[in-house]
Amino acid sequence: MGGLSNILERIFIDNGRIDLLILSQIKKAMSEIMPEFITKYIEIYKFSKGTLYLKSQHSIWSSEIKFNKAMIINKLNEKLGKHIVKDLRIK
Hints:
alpha+beta; 91 residues; GMP Synthetase, Chain A, domain 3; single chain
């Protein structure tokens, strides 16, 4: 018998909402790789065609994310176990 996460994953897939499943996985991975003092000022609001879209409450955090973009993408994909995130955009 699968766990609750496997059941929820199956429901998302069966209902054609893999995008929500991936977004949920990305949010969890982001909270694990980024310090809390940054993530509380960053909002993950969309994932589409390999691009992760973020909003920042301050330009300092936008700059920090842009500076570390490649590292963030690599760490997210490591956590996810597959190459899902190809680009990251922040405003």
